[in-house]
Structure formats: C-alpha cells, structure tokens
C-alpha cells in the first residue's frame, strides 16, 4: 500500500475578533502544524500527546481511539484525540505501519517556567523529531530480523538512468548504485526498502507511478532535497570532509540520491547527527538478478500468502541472533555471481560442518551476544539508555569468548579469519571501563538514574550518601514527631504535589491544628480520612534531599554522556565487530542446516553446467518430514550435451499432483542457495554461475493492477523471453494454461522454440500439453522428462520420480476423484473424456511438427515483405479519392475504376 499522506493544516486562524478568538495555545499549535506539512502532529500536553483537527480524525480511524472535542476554532468544534505518552511507541508503531509519518512535538520547558512569563503564557513547544518508516531506531518499532532501509531514488531530467541510495540508520549501512529505469522494479524488490523518497515530479511520473504506488511507503519531497548542484556539498557537510573524493567514487545521480538520504535524515532527526558509514558503491553485476515476480513466485522471504512461515528464508534460517538473521535475508536477496566469493563462503560453512564441537560452542556464545549494532545506533543519536551501554559491554566481552574459542583452531578459512579480525577491533579498555561503571540492575531510561555502580565515581557516591542519609533523617523525624504529638500512627509521606508531609488520621487532626502543636505543624490538606501538615524542618530536609538527588542524577547523566562518547569514538570498530558476529552466525547456522538436513557443498564455477543429483526441495522436504513423510529425491541435468555450446531445456510432463512444480522450484532454489554460499539439498550439485533467475510458476490474478490471470502470465513470460540470456536459469510452469487450449498450446510451443533458438538458456518447462513432447525430435537441446505415477484399480498412485520420457495422460479425473468431486460428476467426466479422446484420435499435434517450420525460420520472414493483396490495393485507391474536389462526372468515373479493380468472379 502506498500512502501519500495529504494531511493538510487547518486554515490559519483569522485575526482574533470576538467570535473567532484563537487561544494562545491553539495559535501555537497551528503555527507548528503549518511548519510541518504532510505530517501527523503529536502535540505534547502533560502526560498526553494530543492530536487535533483532521489529524485527530485520521488517528482516531487508524488507531481506533475515541474522537472527542476541545473548544472551538472559527466557531466550529475542534476534533481531538489523545495518546498517553507512556504508550506512545505502541501507537506510533501502528501509524508507521500504515505509512503515516508523525511529527513529535514536545514541551521544551517546565510549565512553571512559562507561568513566570505571565499567567496566559503558553509552554514553549517544538518538534523534536519526525518519525517515518525508514528512519526508526527504537527497538520496539523495528523488526529485529529485518533491515530497515530508507531509499532515495533520483533521475536526471529526461534520462533513462536512475540513481539509488539506501541507508539503514540502525546499522549505519549506506549504499549507492545506478540502474536503468527498466531495472528499477528488480532493484526495489531486492532491497525491499521500508520507505522510499522521491521528488514530487518523479512520484507523478506515469512511467514510475505504478511501481512506486506498490511500495509500502513513498514520501514525495520538494526538488531541493534532490538538487544535484548542492548534493556534493551536503554530503561533505554531513561527513565533515572537504571533498567526497576520499570517501567514495559516485556518479552524479548516485550522489544526488545519497545527498537526498542525508538531508531527509537530518530533517527527521532534527539537530541530531546520525552516524552513517560513508556511502559504498554496490558493484554492478556481482549479484544474481531476480525480478520481483520470480522472488514472489519462488517464495524466497514470504509465501504468496504474505507469511514468513513457509518461505525459503524461514526454512533455512537457523541463525541465533537478530543481526545474523538480517544478514542471511540480505544474502538471500542478492546471491553472488563470482565463483571465488561464493567459494569463500562455502569454505566457512564447510569448516563448521566438519567441526561440530566448534559449531555448537560458537552458537552458544553467539546466542547470548547482544544486538550491538542497534544499541550503537540508538546511543549515537542520543536516544540510547543504560541498557544499550551494557549491550556494548557484553558484546565486546562476547567477542573475546568467541575469539578464545576460535584461536584454538588451526587453518581457519579466510571468511572466518576476517570475522576474527573484526572481533578484535573494538577497544577492550572500553569494555573494562563499562564493566566497572555499570550496575547489575539497570533502569530502562537514563533519567531514572541508579545505573552507575557504587565505587566508580567517588563524588557520586558522596552525593548519594548525603541523599540517603537525609532520607534516614526523615525516618527519625517521624519517630520524634510521633513522640512529641503522642500520635503513634503519625506518618511522614511524599507525593509530587505536597512534597514531604506529615499525615495523621482525621481524629488526631484537630490536636495538631491547636496550640501548641500548631506552631510546628502547618495545615495543608484535609481529606476524608486524613489530615496533612508540613513543618519548616521538613521543608529544609526536603530541599536537601532534592538537591542531593538532583546532583546525583546530574552526575550520573554526565557519566552516561562520557561513556556514550567512548562508544561514538569507537563506533567503526564496534560496527565491524557486530558484522563479524553476524557473519559467524550465518556461517554456523548454514552449517547446522547442512548437517541437520543433509545438504552437500555445491561445485560452483564459470561453466554452463547444471547437474543436480538427488535434489530435494528445501521447504517441501521439511514440511513432509514434519508429517513423517519422505521426500523423493530427483536428478536434473541442464548442462550442455556433448558437442553443444548451450545448456539444455527439460520439458516435463506428468499427471496433476505428481510433483512437477516442486521439481521446477527445487532446481531454482538449489541454484540460489549455492550462490548465497549455502550448501544445497542434493547428493551432488555442479552449477555454472547463474546470472539471472526467472520463474513463471502458478497462476494468480492481479486484480489490484487490473490484470487477469492470463495477462499476468503473459507479462511475466514476455519478460523472460525478452531478457533471458545464455547464463540465465528459467523456470516455466504451465505456460498458456490460462486460455483456450489451442491458444495456450500454440503460445507454449512458440515459447519453447524461442527459448531454444534465441535465449539458449538453461530451462525447465512443465506442461500438460503432451503434444509439446514432439518438439524434442526437432530441437536438439530439448529433453523430455516425466514424473512417474502408477495406476492401481483405477486410482492413481504418485511416485514423485522424475525420469526420462513423456507422460501419455494427465490423470486429471483421478486427481479430481481424490479431491472429493461427487461420484456422479466423476462418472460423467470419464464418459465425456472417452468420447473426446475417440474424436481426437489421429488428429493430435503429431502432424504439426512436420507442417510447421521452426520458430527461427518463421521469425526470419517478417510480415512487411509480403506482396500487397488486392484488398490493400483497393484501400489505397479509395484513400487517394477526394470527393469534395470532384465533379459528379469524375466521381462516377472513379466508381467505375474502383469496380474494375475488384477480382473477377
Ligand atoms: N519429490 C517429492 N517427494 C515427495 N512428495 C512430493 C514430491 N514432489 C511433490 N510432492 C508432493 O506432491 C504435492 C504436489 O506437487 P506439485 O504441486 O509439485 O505437483 P504438480 O505436478 O505441479 O501438480 P499440478 O500439475 O496439479 O500443478 C506437493 O505438495 C508435495 O506434497
């Protein structure tokens, strides 16, 4: 869903006349609202964020909270609703999920301060932060297992190239790249940003609007954010450097997008500088291209129903840390295409497969290691708490543990050695200081105090003693007052309104209000059952306690800032260590998966091989295992045959439910797993790098985009036939089934010829059009395979074995019977089928193969070259006539001339 919020500020208030008087507070609200267009305003009033006008209506609808009224504006009621500050995160989370951006406006001074300026003065307020889906840092607003990307898309006027930059504030990642407009969809699908920013103009560009509107949140911004002329300067300012040359080489478009990202971050974080790594350029062509339809069809990170459960990622994710899970998802989104890089990852997995003790020890250590990167990000933007500091301390300590364990092993592969180098980077002194400074029990917020360990800072200890000693004084005072007044039940209590006060039950109240006790006890409040007093002595001690308490808190906050500054100084090294943890987590997790599910190391090289022995489907296998069912392993071989230069196409026929789709998908997933650096579910796999993966499987309507099932199928097929090259792997399942039989068969027929002659890629093609198997007689790289079933007393038994050959029938009626169609329908269907088959006998497609020349030949005879027909000539002659300029005689002659051109009967 795309939401471009058009929350408009209410009309600015008219000058105050008697009936349109605007209160000073409302005046302030309207000014702040007008300064923050397009944002829903959370306006802090005491313990609530209040929301007014149209914002209130939107919030009430979106959050299901009660809409009330508060006062009047220009004679009309002001709609209002409120969110308690303590629950604000929960509500923010829901608004963000709907793509609504929120400006949080806080009270910038104590109400008492405002009062000093006059009784009518309004508390100073300001927007301290804009909360948007792509700029979150709070743990409770983020999905721990997924990256949270903000992406900027820039395009030069009239150009075809697009500059992209994306950042994850919570991990400091900052990446830029460029692509052609046509590749934008695939790139967006790969990165899967949580928020995209574009110019207003791009947002309404007809070429891109469809694509952009399908994203979860798109924020159109004014042109200045994407201004190319100032891009470099804005980047230099952000990174506090004189020139970007030293940071990274970027194209102008990339720099424009990168600058848009930092400007947007600055605008949303208001006054806080978010630390980001300098932008790195994503190397073009180093990852397998997978278009959005293929990602969706293969259910890589979500099932077609939108769930994580049941997806490939869910099946292979054995990571034990959130950062590891995020890295695995990133790798799955962008499999590598260089054999050396892939081998490096396989080496690491292999080392952990071979040494189960090492694997288990590391996993146990990683399990308790905290998510340092997100704690780091919070600390760096000034939103961190004491628990984030502890997270850093524990992270560095965990790094030592992991290093200890790894140091005991010899000859570790390069990927693990690199991770170890990352773990060594953070300063150990920092961890030691933190260990001395931080208490065992920690409050969530730094402003609650009490997180610095006793003994760390002598001045703090002294101040705390003073505060605590004064508290003891209060206790002894209570005993003395009880004695002096003779009221045993006298208590000294504290609340925020009265501060410290003496409380007695109503029956003793009078005594304290009379001489001589009234000289000491000053009456403050009478409640139903109690009477409350203060004394000057109590006032003094209260001031002392408050002072000492305030000073202790002030000292603690100073210490907090000192520690946070140490983190900031060491942030690059801490990020490196955090990434190293994630790398180790992914490598050990993939090793565990390989061992538990019996995966092997694939042999990946630059060839065009694709030979899988004993291949299985990673997700279906796990599902069947849970039901106690075995998965039948199957081989495939799309490698070029002897004397051939290009890979093969397998045409798979077989009954419904036999396992064709499963077989197709498993081969695609094996290639993908191999290239992310994982072992694969097979007994042996030899794979020549796949640079592009295409799949067209299943059929689904896309009514939201106004496309029928058949249209979706054809659009996706068109992409494949237009783009697949020799290094691609193509999976096509039942092309043409969404239309009339002969249309479908013809399309499938022509598509196979095109794949074979033009694309020359490795491909798997499943179909129920058995006529297509004839094509193997003409196409040397087309190989027929079938999924075996057995017929048993009229029923069908699925064996799920893929073998050379072709199926003679689809057993559709037997499958329908299994599905529970009424017996009468089954009997009737059998009769109809028998009749149809008898009629069709001898007239099938067998003749076609001889009658029709191959695709390659037909394509060489373009339509324009045929001689004009008589109808064409006639049309030309009619077009040449100009009736308005003709005399009746000329018109009659022309009519005779036309008649003469008609073919003689
Ligand atoms: N190799 C296998 N081993 C065990 N069970 C399998 C295997 N392949 C498929 N199955 C089971 O058979 C079911 C049907 O498989 P699949 O959807 O791949 O069939 P299909 O031939 O594509 O059917 P249709 O032509 O009706 O679309 C799967 O859900 C799975 O449970």
UniProtKB/TrEMBL annotation:
Keywords: ATP-binding, DNA damage, DNA repair, DNA-binding, Nucleotide-binding. InterPro entries: DNA_mismatch_repair_MutS, DNA_mismatch_repair_MutS-lik_N, DNA_mismatch_repair_MutS/MSH, DNA_mismatch_repair_MutS_C, DNA_mismatch_repair_MutS_clamp, DNA_mismatch_repair_MutS_core, DNA_mismatch_repair_MutS_N, DNA_mismatch_repair_MutS_sf. SMART domains: MUTSac, MUTSd. ATP binds at residues 654-661. Pfam families: MutS_I, MutS_II, MutS_III, MutS_IV, MutS_V. Gene3D superfamilies: 1.10.1420.10, 6.10.140.430, DNA repair protein MutS, domain I (3.40.1170.10), MutS, connector domain (3.30.420.110), P-loop containing nucleotide triphosphate hydrolases (3.40.50.300). This protein is involved in the repair of mismatches in DNA. It is possible that it carries out the mismatch recognition step. This protein has a weak ATPase activity. PANTHER family: DNA MISMATCH REPAIR PROTEIN MSH1, MITOCHONDRIAL, DNA MISMATCH REPAIR PROTEIN MUTS FAMILY MEMBER. HAMAP family: MutS. Belongs to the DNA mismatch repair MutS family. This is DNA mismatch repair protein MutS.
